[in-house]
Amino acid sequence: MILSLALEQLLNGLQLGVMLFLMAAGLTLIFGVMGLINLAHGSLYMVGAFACAVVAAATGSFWIGLAASLVCAAAAGAIVEFLVIRRLYDRDHLDQVLATFALILIFSEGARWVFGSFPLYLDIPPLLSGAVPLPGIEAYPLYRLAIIGVGALVAFGLYLLISKTRLGMRIRAGESDREMIAALGVDIRTLYTVVFALGSALAGLAGALVGALQSVQVGMGEPVLILAFVVIVIGGIGSIKGALVGALIVGLTDTLGRFLLPSLLGLILPASTAGAVGASLAAMLIYIVMALVLAFRPRGLFPANA
Amino acid sequence: MTGMSMTRENIINLVLALLLLVAPVAASQMGQPFTVTLATRIAVLALAATGLNIALGLGGLVSFGHAVFFGIGGYAAGILASHVFSGEPMMFGFEGSNQMPVIWIFAVIACGLAGLVIGAISLRTSGVYFIMITLAFAQMIYYFAISWPAYGGEDGLSILVRNQFPGINTMLPLSFFLLCYGVLIACIGLFALLRSSRFGAALQAARQNEVRVASVGISPYGIRLAAFVISAMMTGLAGALYADLNKFVSPSMLSWHMSGELIVLIILGGTGRLFGPVAGAMLYVIFEFALGGITERWQLFLGLILLGVVLFARGGLIGLLAGKARHG
To answer: How many CB atoms lie within 10 A of CB A193?
Structure first.
């Protein structure tokens, strides 16, 4: 019984990790190639979730909604890159932080204006609803398993894209020497827009997938954004491999910490105190892990361009 | 740099300082306590941002987590006062306090210690890592405050009666404003002293060229850590006043939006300027009040204005009025 619960939590942690990877991959790609810190990445996650919820409600199909989330987030990303972000590449990080903070305000209030403050709901598609038995677990929600699968596919797809294709070659070249690849005749502005749209589409996908588990509402992107920051700081900013490892560390640490800490502390503290202390500690756990990683590896586990 | 020659910036500073003092006094005479409250809000936010400006403006340390210190200061006021009301002693039989000087000392010490720990770890990194790690530490404390039930958790903590200051009736809006204004001016004076001191020169030099500072035998790390701690203390003091202004403290004081707003105040006014935070806080609170009266969606317009300032008017308000900064 306990074992099955633990296995279930392990899978939940994996699922959270996979979601975080979708967010973190875009963030770290954008930082790696353009040197830009993008706080508005969480807004693109929100755009994806809203697009999916609205289109799914209109057409009755989750899958069309999912496709819409990719398209809308990528389009929103490309437009934002064209209008605002490209003016920020040669600015310092403070300007980037402020401008993208301003974008968050605009996106959040804009969404509240259009959709109101009430959350929208997005149903899990019938094909993926229900639960399946797994070894050691009586029944695990199929949808969550599917998310883990999607995350694994995207990770593999990104690996192929970056290591095997012409676009990937340009991205890698952009990461190691921006000026040189521009001098070699690569259209760097288009490359930047494409990378930004790609990162945005991944964030939108994550938003749509999570939207069916939780509600779709304004501000949903911010907690995820900050977790994604923790992920890329642990993994090493600019490294996709670091983002994957960091995402799994954060997802598993957070989920298992919330599950295990209260009962572990119950062994040494009275039950009522243990619950409260355990919950507070669990909420802080990933940040403690991050601080420990940075104390020993100030540039993360897989420093890019070291 | 801080000589008393009447440069345009000095004149603007003087005007801002007088404006912030005269407006609420006049409003109070005309029986408009709400304007006094707005002015108090400006003074307290300006104080918090002046604290941040030590790290950000002088040291070039973009802390995206200064809400931590603002919130800790606020909770110092809330927690100490709550023990006086409930009559339950705190640790070591200490009974809490509703005296602002005691609260301020607690707030400043607590923020100094928090700043020391957070700064010691965060300053090992730089650039984007520093921004993100300070943000992450702030989130850590934020989630702790939400999940720790003893002092209200997510709901926050009310201060039933505003804390007291010897010889001043803090219940009167104007008296409380004058108290906050006095603290603000004292701290701006401290900022000016720091900026023109040897310490300030080393701090600004470390911002401009770390290697050169290190090569003359000064450790940038130590200088920056000291600046970060002082900065945390000043922002914490503002937090204690803010809690007393609202008679309420909640985790939202610790949220990353708060950290962002503190940076925004500095940028709106002008980075590294002595009165930048004052100008920024004035603009911000007036926007909030004026736009908030017209539309609920005032933050949308704030976002657009902020975007415009960052992209096109990098010197902020004081930069527009006084021209280019002489230091940089």
So the answer is: 18
Dihedral of CA atoms A148, A154, A158, A164 in degrees, nearest 10, equals 110
Give the model's confidence band at B270: pLDDT under 50 very low, under 70 low, under 90 confident, else very high.
Answer: confident
- CB burial of B214-229 (b: ≥16 within 10 Å; e: otherwise) equals eeeebebeebbbbbbb
- The verdict on residue A268 lying in a domain is no
Domain total of chain A: 1
Containing domain of residue A93, as a range?
A: 2-218
From chain B, the residues in CB contact with A112 under 8 A are 297
- Mean pLDDT calculated for residue range B244-255: 94
Min CA distance, A304 vs chain B (Å)? 13
Mean pLDDT of B90-111: 87
Q: How far apart are CA B131 and CA B135, in angstroms?
A: 6
- Output DSSP code: residue A141: E
Name the residue among B132, B139, B303 with its Cβ closest to that of A105: B303
Q: To probe the interface with A, which of B118, B137, B140 has the most A CB atoms within 10 Å?
A: B140
ipTM confidence score:
0.85
Report d(CA A301, CA B3) in Å as an integer: 49
* Residues of A with Cβ-Cβ distance to B140 under 8 angstroms: 283-284, 287-288
**What pLDDT, in 10s, does the model give residues A87-143?**
998 888 888 999 999 999 999 999 998 988 888 888 888 888 888 888 877 788 899
Q: Which of B254, B264, B255 is nearest to B299 (CA)?
A: B264
If you measure CA to CA, which chain B residue comes closest to A236? B129
Instruction: Among A41-50, A210-219, B313-322, name the one with the lowest average pLDDT.
Output: B313-322
d(CA A25, CA A22): 5
pLDDT, averaged across chain A: 88
The residue type of A42 is G
Is A140 part of a structural domain of the chain?
yes
Domain ranges across chain B: 40-265
Q: Is residue A280 part of a domain?
A: no
Cβ neighbours of A222 in B, within 8 Å: 256
pLDDT class for A265, splitting at 50, 70, 90? confident
Checking if the pLDDT of B226 tops 50, the result is yes
As a dihedral over the C-alpha atoms of residue B62, residue B57, residue B41, residue A117, rounded to 10 degrees, the angle is -30
Closest Cα in chain A to B153: A280
Q: For B116, how many CA atoms within 13 A lie in the half-sphere containing its CB?
A: 6
How far is A19 from A207, CA to CA, in rounded Å?
9
Q: Which of A84, A93, A290 sits opposite B128 (nearest CB)?
A: A93
A199, part of any domain: yes
In angstroms, what separates the C-alpha of B193 from chain A's closest C-alpha?
Answer: 25
Q: Which of B255, B225, B227, B231 is nearest to B74 (CA)?
A: B255
